[in-house]
Amino acid sequence: MKRLVIAFVIPLTMISLLGLTKWWYVDVIDGTDGIMYGFPLIYKSWGFHTSMSNQYFCLEFLFDLLCHFAFWTIVFYLIKKAFKTIKAKKAISLFLYTIAGLIVILEMLFVVDPINLFKIKRNFDVEVIETGYSLFWQNVQRQEKE
Fold it and tell me: Which are the contacts of 84, defined by CB distance < 8 A and separation ≥ 6?
């Protein structure tokens, strides 16, 4: 099982956490509306202090990371239990690590921007208007108010 975790679970966790994201169109209580990201909890928001900035919430991100890791670990545990033997092909593992590495590098280009804020926990309430899923390179636009 340890080899499966290293070969498949870790890169699939990164791909599912950063590559396939859930967006939340929310109205911040006593604030403006906009798009936030994360599943099952919101861990990324636009910055309130200046345009072109983001806020990252560390506890929510760690919880999301653990949820994705637990999901993929359980999936591969059940597959291993059903099929008894699973061989971790190096080519597949290398492909998954390459895709995960590219996604992490591209995401880090945005995260290391000095105007971004990092907070331990989200300290504002939101009212969810709409949700959906998108790939990390897709840009979800805010809705126009009528």
Answer: none
